[in-house]
Specification:
104 residues, alpha+beta, 3-stranded antiparallel sheet, 2 helices, 3 strands, binds zinc ion
């Protein structure tokens, strides 16, 4: 995850590679802080992949002999992925805050 830190506004925001690396408040260049993906992030990607695979199977009306279980797996993996994404964002944000010396 990448964060954009503005030394002038003391603003720390998550940012993406496609966004401009400037502060949203003052428009000046911000410092980019990269936080490596944690185990939660990888688990999130894995669960999203599972969810997407089951969604695809659902669209293809492929049963796999799982019956209703496939719906539990489909929604369960997607919900778990969302929870993990939130955990990942939270952890990365606090790491980034520590990096810039702005401990919450
Ligand atoms: Zn700023």
């Amino acid at each position: 995850m990448k964060f954009c830190y503005c030394p002038d506004c003391k603003e720390l925001r998550p940012t993406s590679w496609y966004r401009r690396k400037t502060c949203l408040l003052c428009g000046r260049d911000c410092r980019i802080i990269s936080i490596p993906i944690s185990i939660y992030g990888y688990a999130m990607y894995a669960l999203s992949a599972v969810g997407a695979a089951f969604l695809a199977l659902e669209l293809l009306e492929e049963d796999l002999g799982l019956g209703t279980w496939r719906l539990f797996i489909l929604f369960g993996s997607l919900i778990a992925a969302m929870v993990l994404a939130a955990v990942e964002t939270e952890k990365a944000s606090s790491l980034a805050a520590q990096r810039v010396g702005k401990v919450r």
